[in-house]
Structure formats: C-alpha cells, structure tokens
Amino acid sequence: MSKHLIEVENLTKVYGKDFTAVDNVSFHADEGEVIAFVGDNGAGKTTVIKCITGILQATSGKISVCGERVGNGIESKKCVGYTADNPDFMLRLTCREYLEFLADVYELDAEARDRNIETLTRRFEIQEVLSDRLDSCSHGTRQKIMVTGALIHNPPVWILDEPMTGLDPQSAYRLKKMIREHAEKGNCVLFSTHVLDTAEEICDKVVIIRKGKVVCFDTVESLKKKYGGHSLEDSYLNIVGDEND
Amino acid sequence: MTKSINKVYLLAKAMAKNSTADNDPFKHKSLKVAITVIGGGIMLLCAVLVGYFTHLLTQAVVIINPQSSGTEAAQLIMYFISVFGAVFGVNVICGWLYFSSDLARILPYPFKPDEICMAKFVVGYLQESIMEFLVIIGILTGYMVADGVSILGIIFAVFGVVLLPVLPLFYCGLFSIIIMSLAKKVRSAKGVHMVSTICGLVFVAIFVASLLQLDDITAEGFIDSIAYGTNMFINIMQYVFFTVPLLCFAIGGQNILLFLAFVAVHIAMWIVLDLLSSKLYLTGVSAVMSSGKKQIRTEGKQAKIHSLFMSCLLRDIKTLLRTPTYIMNCVAPNVLLPLAGLIVLLTGAGGSLRGLINSLNAPNVLVLIAIVIASALVTAMSGISSSAFTREGNHADLLKYIPVPLKVQVNAKVLTALIFSLPAALLGTVLLCVSVGAGAVLTMLCLAGSILSVICTVYTGVLFDAMHPKFVWDDELSALRGNMSTFLHMAVVIAVGVVLGAVYFIFSYEVLVPIVLAVLAVATAVLAMYVSNRTVMLIEEMEI
Q: Which DSSP category does B390 fall into?
C-alpha cells in the first residue's frame, strides 16, 4: 500500500470573522501520484495550497506532509518544494544568487547544489541567464527559475500553484514532463490549474473544489464514468452543472 | 543555536541584498553619481551640524555646572534620536515583520518563526539606522571633542554607534509581536499607525511639559535645566532609553564595566526577542494573513459620469486616501509639523512669536524663521508630490494605453498633489502671519508666495519622477524613502534657502518680498509649461 505523502483531513479556513474560504476539505496524495486541484476563481484552491505549505494556519482540521504535521515546526517544510503562482520573489538577486540561497536554506552540500542547478537549468535551457537579475528576466524565465528553485532539494512533495501561467509552449511541455517524471520517482505532485486539458493530460487524480468544498476527488477515468463526457472538461462542466442545479 | 544564527544570517543577507540593490537602475551614470553625492552630502551635513551643536551644548553645560558629568548634552540629543527611532520605527519594523509582500514566499521554506522574525528585524534595523549611525557619530564626536578624546572612549563609541539604535527598534519589535499576536482590535497596519502616532504625541507631550516646567522658558533656562539635571524630559528618557546613559557614562568615565553592561543588555534584547518570536510570531502572521478583506460600500450608489480629467483626479485621490502608509508618512507630517513647530515657538516665547523675536533682539530673525519654516514645508511636501506620480508602479504603462491624453493625466496628478499639500502650507502661513502680527497685505503676499512655492515644488517633483521613475511600490514605506526625488528636492530647497539668505543680506526686507514673489511667479509659469510638456515626452519614451 502506498504511503500518503500529503494528507488533508477536514480542513477549514475562515478569513476574518465569517468568511469561510475552505470548508471541511479532505483528500490525500500518495507516492507516485500527480494530483490536479481544479476549481473556479475564488473556489479555495490557493487557500488550501497555502495551508499545506504553512503560509496560512488552518482554522480547524489536520494537515500532514510526509507524516509530519504541518504547523509543528519546520520538518514538514523540508519535504516540500513550492512554486507560487507569481514568480516575483527576491527579484533583485541574480538567478544564481536566488538558487544558491535556496540551496543554503535546504542545506545542500556543494556537490549536490552544483549538480542540481546544472541539471535543472539545462533542462529549461536557462544556463545563460544565471548571472542576470531576476527582475531583468521575462515572466516565463522567472517562472522557470522558481521551478528550478522548488526542485533544488529534490523534494518528496512538489506543490505548484497555477504553474503553466506565462510559460511558452515548449517550456510548458517540459514542465508537464518534469511533473510526471518527479512523480514516477516515487514523489507526489499537487498542482492547481484552470486548464483542464493539462490536468487530464498529466494527473492521476483530480480534486474538484467549489465554493470552498471538495465536490469530487477521484481518478480522471472514474470521473468520466461517473459524470459522463469524453473529456475532463465535459465531466467538470457536468459536475458544476449538477452543483448549480 | 549556531545553526539558527546561521539561518538568520542567510535570510537577512538575501533580504538585505534584495532590498538594497539598485531598484531602478539609472540610464545615466552621471545622474546616479550626482544623486549619490547630493544624498550623501545632505546626510553628512546633518551629521556635522548635529555634532557641532552637541559640541557647543556640552561646552555650555560644563561651563554652567562644572560638577555635571558633561554627557548631558549628548544624552539629550541621543534621546531625541531614540524617540524618533521608536516612533517611526514602529511602522517600519511592524511592516517588515507582518505586512511585507515577501512573507508569503518565505514561510514555505524551512525557517523557524524566530529565524524569520530575527532576520527581518536585522534588515529593518540596518535600513532604518543608516542615517542614525551618521548622526550618532556626529553626536559622539562633538561630545568627545568637547570633553576629551581617549582610545578606550573611541572603542566604546564605535560599539555605541552600531548598538544605540537597537533599543528603540527592540521596543518596536516587542510591541509589534505582542500587539499582532494578542491584540485583535489593533491588528492591522492602520492600528499600528494609530498607536505609533499616540506614542509620538506622548513623547511630544513629555517634552512640552518639560519646557513648561522650567521657571525661565528661554534657551538659557533650558540649558540650565540640562546642566543641573532638573530637565524632566531627560530624567524620564534616561529610564526609557537606558542604554544611552550606560554608553555615555562608559565613554565619559572610560568605565569598562559599564561598557560590558551596555553590550550585555543588547545580547539580552536579542534573546528576549528571539524567545518571544518563537512563541508568538507565527500566530500574529497567521492572524494578519487570515484577516478579512476590507470592503468599500458601493451598492445603492448611482453611477456618475465624470469628465476624463475629473475621473483621473478622483482615481488618484481615492488611491492615496486608501493608502495608510502614505497618509501617515506624507500627509500627517505635513499637517502636524508646521503646527508642532509653531507651538514650540510660541511656548518658547512665552505665548507669542513676536515675543520670541523681541527677546532675541533681532527683528530680521523673522525673515530667517519664515524661510526656514517655508523650507521645511516645501521639503516635507516633496514626499507628496514625488509619490503621487509614479504610484502606478509596475502598471505605469496604464498611463499610455488608456485613451486619455497624457497631459490630462499629468495635470490630474499635479492637482492631486496640490490638494494634499496646499491646505497645510496655507494654514502654516496664516498662523505664522497672525503670530507675528503681519498686516492683511503682507499676509496676502505671503499666501501668494506660499501657493506659488507649493506649485513649483509639485511641478519639480513631477519632473524628477518622470526623469527617474520608481516603479516598485510593493513596500510602500521603502518606496517612499527610496524615492530619489525627495533628496533632489531637499537639495533644491537648501539652494533656495541659501539664495534667499544672500538676497536678504544684500537687499532690504522691503525689496526681498517683491523679488521673491516675482521670481516665484515667473518660475511657476515657466515650470508649469515646461514640466507638463517635458513630462509627457518622458512618459512617451518610458520603457516599463
């Protein structure tokens, strides 16, 4: 039986006094799995991701990453590589300085950091920009550097928030390939997206979230069988239609 | 412990590098050099002036009371610096710790809460204290020159320069952590601004009370109170900012034990802040991030159709009014500073500015005071005029693609800056004229001069901004402080002050007023025409 690398149980997050952004959400991600987190704007995808990564504290519920409870120290954070939706961080550092900073954060030895930076930057063909400042790079290049940074310590759990935004077709293809390969090594990947084609193409399971609640958590094939349609998009629209009805 | 300090160092280094690297690289190297020289020159000038003042005051105190320790003057000025550090540091430290945009990006990394907090505190301290370091060097140099220099004293002073700004910021950090984690009602940037304003007013009240307590409210009476240790302000502040007397007595008496105590206190502060942040920091951060969104009621309001100009103007005004940092750092000081200055002057003169001028037996001081106050006003206003223009931040290209002529947009921004600047300037001018008993004609002339000055300043600010636009407004406070046009404005104001002073000494008072007004009127007309055309050209050339 595969191990739950991410386990979210009855997660609820309330903003301010009475705005419940996420309501009693439960799901899990196992070794080797790619999970797509799908939902409308404001459905609560980013809030769930922020709770898993420790950016936000859950109002109630339990989250574990690699068996470590999120919120209890930093052990769970060591297992996670996070790629945020907006690649605007430490913009005035050069790309290399940014990656070196993350290598220090995850305490990588000299050999591992050189190897990982070399391998990852070669895959995205961004070796030439390593000396450039992040704020002088295009949005897509920054996104590639952020992805490289998230994977620099080869994390068992890789979380991406809207990762395809701003990437050129070739880079988007490479990223999808990297997501699959990362999972095939026994890790798990959780990503949020609006692009259902991408979700269908690379994910094993889909979590559909609507108005803060999980309305579906299943494999793509099961969803298609259960809700009909030839594609994930058809099934999604059927589910959303059901919900609206 | 060592590992934790390493992590603090690692994070602080990255953040400091990120925040101090050139924000908007200059196209022209010469402009960068000029601005650096002007900025550095102004800071150095301030440090030298403060040092010279400390030197004179220390000599006066020692002559008045040979039994005094000789450190009182230096202490007094350091208390002022500490008060400024504490009052303005609350916003900076709290902003750094809880409201900076990079927080959501740092939290997913394996840093402990206290490591993040301490790293942010260190960066906040370094950024906030650069000017303080220079001023403290000036104070300690002035004091040591007056009281005698020793090798040990110099060594202690070096540590003092680095460590003295820590205590006020330590209070700010302590206050921020406690407030943000425990006090739900003030858990917002606005709440912190409010509390820091109250703190500032308390300090001002203590200072005014210490003046009122004097038997003889004159400069001599004030210096006497310092020399004989009866000054209430000093007597209270020596407990609040207790590291100041520790350092001063260590340097004055070359006392190693006191110096070690001074260093030990700072180590203790680090430990306290570290322990407290490990327990409470994350609670506060989480609470801030989970606070509900502020909503502006728009339902039920009928949509109004505005002209292009009015629409741009209203948008700029609403944006500024809904930016607390801007209100607290630019608008509030503009309103409060002239009033506070006038109150202090009136108090010092036993009720009237005319009394002060008479007591100084120098009627021409009137002109100098007017110039100084006008300069202070104009300088403070530069913050407003400069920030109003490039507030679009990374979206400044919006100026170009909306179908509104650039000239209309520039004029809307000029008018926005005037709306925020003029009332304070006019109020200050009227109060000044009433206090000195100026007649109606002179008052009207002064008001005209004031209006022209502000218009000139606003147009100059707009031009500076267009020449050297600043687009990163993620951290409002850093953006306001980092705006180079403020430094350029100060240079212009100092130059104008020098010219006016020279004109006054060459010509008579009767000649000065019409000359100043005529020059201002011509300058305003020329600037208005030149700036609006030039700014439009610069925006068109701007690559964002």
A: G
Which residues, at least 6 apart from A116, have a Cβ–Cβ distance to it below 8 Å?
A103, A108, A151, A152, A153, A154
pLDDT digits (tens, 9 = 90+) for B9-38: 999 988 888 876 555 544 556 666 776 777
Question: Nearest residue on chain A to B283, judged by CA atoms?
Answer: A57
pLDDT band for position B396 (50/70/90)?
Answer: low
Most confident stretch, A94-103, A236-245, B389-398, B418-427 = A94-103
C-alpha of B433 from chain center: 26
Least confident of A56-70, A89-103, B421-435: B421-435
* B484: nearest Cα among B355, B390, B358: B390
Q: Which residues of B touch A91 (CB under 8 A)?
A: 18
Contact residues for A218 (Cβ-Cβ < 8 A; gap 6+): A205, A206, A226
Mean pLDDT of chain B, nearest integer:
76
* Chain A: residues touching B (Cβ < 8 Å): 13-19, 50, 53-57, 59, 73-75, 77-78, 80, 82, 84, 88-93, 97, 101-102, 104-106, 133
- Subunit contact B110:A106, Cβ cutoff 8 A: yes
The CATH superfamily label for domain A1-79+156-245 reads P-loop containing nucleotide triphosphate hydrolases (3.40.50.300)
Asked if B292 and A105 come within 8 Å (Cβ–Cβ), the reply is no
What b/e string do you get for B228-262 counting C-beta neighbours within 10 Å, with b at 16 or more?
Answer: eeebbbbebbbebbebbbbbbbbbbebbeebbebb
**B10 close to A (CB below 8 A):** yes
Q: How far apart are the first and last CA of chain A?
A: 38
Q: CATH 3.40.50.300 occupies which residues in chain A?
A: 1-79+156-245
* A210 SS3 class: strand
Report which of B451, B453, B327, B333 is spatially closest to residue B387, judged by C-alpha positions: B327
**Three-state DSSP string of B243-302:** HHHHHHHHHHHCCHHHHHHHHHHHHHHHHHHHHHHHHHHHHHHHHHHCCCCCCCCCCCCC
Q: Is B16 on the interface with A (CB under 8 A)?
A: no
Rounded-to-integer distance, Cα B366 and Cα B345, Å: 12
| pLDDT digit string, tens, across residues B433-464 | 666 666 777 778 777 877 887 787 778 777 77
Is the CB of B14 inside 8 Å of chain A's CB atoms?
yes
Of A56, A78, A84, the CB nearest to B286: A56
Amino acid at B475: D
Q: What is the mean pLDDT of residues B264-274?
A: 95
- Which among B21, B112, B291 is the nearest to A16, CB-wise? B291
ipTM over 0.90: no
pLDDT tens readout for residues A4-55? 899 999 999 998 877 889 999 999 999 999 999 998 888 899 999 999 998 8
Where in chain B are the domains?
2-18+27-289, 308-541
pTM: 0.76
Residues β-bridged to residue A62: A9
Q: Give CA–CA dist B164/B157, Å, rounded.
A: 10
pLDDT tops 80 at residue A232? yes
Alpha-carbon span B65 to B67, nearest angstrom = 5
d(CA B460, CA B466): 10
Nearest to B162 by CA among B200, B195, B134: B134
> Of B523, B223, B535, B210, which is closest to residue B400 (Cα–Cα)?
B535
